[in-house]
Amino acid sequence: MSPDLWLLASFAALLILGVPVAFALGLSGAVGIVAGLPVSMLATLGTNTYNSIAKYPLIAIPLFILTGLVFERAGVAARLVRFAQALIGPRHGGLALVAVLVCLIMGGMSGSGPADAAAVAMVMIPSMTRAGYPKAFSATLIAASASTAILIPPSIALILYSIVVPGVDLRALFAAGLIPGLLVGVALLLPAWFLSRRYRWEDPTQVERIALGPAFRSAIPALLAPVIILGGLRSGLFTPTEAAVVAAAYGLCVGLFITRELKLSQVWELLREAAVISGVVMLIIALAGIFAWTGTMLGTFRHLAEWLITLSDSGTTLLILVMVAVLIAGMLLDAVSIYLILMPVLIPVMQHFGWHPVWFGILLAMNIAIGQFTPPVAVNLMVTSSVAGVRLEKTVGWAMVFVVAMLAALAVVMLFPELALWLPRVLGYAV
């Protein structure tokens, strides 16, 4: 068996055996070295592990994770919900629309789908259940809406993409994700509104009308967070990494001094939790460096890219095949792992067909977002179904409805690349 097959087969076998992705990447990389390179090359394991995470932009990842946890505990989601309810008013499907809107706004604070899903689900699901929405529907809608966090800036996945793909401006990626993220929100709103009206969920006569003025004033600190982050990036006041520091500091100030729902004694626990989550992410990135180095030295990624290119002379056909492959991967793996595993193969394909790297990165993010609420793994859906107290299999039918809606949005961005490229071009970023 060739070294290429040893590398890929050992990785697949370790995943099937249930070995965590991080260790499967590292161990299969070591197997590839033994199979196709001098055994002395095992001495590079430590260097490759260090080089993978010794990158300044990666500092933003733990800080945005901390930001998401801080806003989750600071009572921000509840205030956003009341503001959205005041805007929309009592109507059939009102709470469903509120859930989508709040997830979109929360996505502009943390960049983490599971964190947004947890925060919004804890506030929205009890209210939606009292209004007559099935728990499985509510859990699925919030899980799907929270997946937009991978698109709405700041996005942890896009930060990683900008590091993996050379020459891509992270600010351009952030700007490019905004319109597709809003498009996905609209794509989710439409079936949610239609189903709510069809099944007569939420009687408008029994829903409290919330005064807009007080609700808006209480939501101002939360609404300012995306403005501060994106405004600072656009003005050049700070870099994306520095934006993560500003976001975390602002979130702590909001929780401690404005909403006062975050106690000083809880800050250490938040730091500990953020460190644990960040440690998992960084471990994947670190050990993926071994896999990436081995695959590059063996030529495995080049061979796979050449094989992909021979499948079709049509860039459109191959793009569809790539999207299907990424969608399947998104159902099984997290965004970090997908980028680290697939991008060494996809970068030569992208360059061969002349796909714009910013546009292609957004397509990948939209695809991975679908996987975040599509069983069997469905990390967002696991969070919301746990909050709702429903079994995951009861959400599958509703999940398919929103998968179709998001695939439609993905198809629109595939057909019209300017939906992703127009805003960064207008803002003067390198595209």
From TrEMBL:
Belongs to the TRAP transporter large permease family. Residues 8-419 form the TRAP C4-dicarboxylate transport system permease DctM subunit domain. The complex comprises the extracytoplasmic solute receptor protein and the two transmembrane proteins. InterPro entries: DctM, TRAP_DctM. Part of the tripartite ATP-independent periplasmic (TRAP) transport system. Its main location: membrane. This is TRAP transporter large permease protein. NCBIfam families: dctM (TIGR00786).
